[in-house]
Amino acid sequence: MAEKQERKRIAENRRARHEYFIEETFETGIALTGTEVKSLRLGKGNLQDSFAQISNNEVLLQNCHISPYDFGNRFNHEPLRTRKLLMHKAEIRRLFAKTREKGLTLIPLQMYFNDKGRVKVEIGLAKGKKLYDKREDMAERDAKRDVDRAIRDRQRNE
Question: Where are the beta strands (DSSP E) in the chain?
Fold first, then answer.
């Protein structure tokens, strides 16, 4: 069997894991125009400040910026337009129930090309962190960095 190719990452929302607890992730397709795909092949996508919402049994990606394609002239797209995420109806219903019931939100985590060359968006079912949660995460990260540094220094001295 052929090995799975490494997926080519287009954009990543790094702040998402800092600002939210990610409870569950989903891989979704996205409905794009031709110039949007060409622009994404050049790596011109941005997920900062974007979010997904469910309306009329559709998952919509809001505030996702895809820069206009340089050679697209009059066929170019609107950079911040609302884009439809493609999911199964049962998954959409389940997500709708969870976002209404528990106060969770849908945050795009990354956008990438899969092994077939299709654009995929990984969204996470997320719950917002409080300030003290963020401070705890930063303290844990600093402690781990200090421990790793001490181990590395000790191995050098031996």
Answer: 8-12, 20-30, 45-46, 51-55, 58-62, 65-66, 83-86, 105-113, 119-128
Whether 90 and 26 have beta carbons less than 8 Å apart is answered as no
Single-letter amino acid, residue 122? E
Q: What is the CATH number of domain 9-129?
A: 2.40.280.10
**What six digits make up the tokens of 143?**
């402690």
Q: Where are the domains of the chain?
A: 9-129
Q: 63-119, pLDDT tens digit by residue?
A: 988 888 888 777 788 888 888 999 999 999 988 888 887 778 889 999 998 888 889
**Cα four-point dihedral sign 145, 148, 150, 156:** negative
C-alpha–C-alpha distance, residues 19 and 14, integer Å = 9
- Other Cβ atoms less than 10 A from the Cβ of 102: the count is 11
Q: Residue-wise over 47-74: b if at least 16 C-beta within 10 A, else e?
A: beebbbebeeeebebeebebbebeeeee
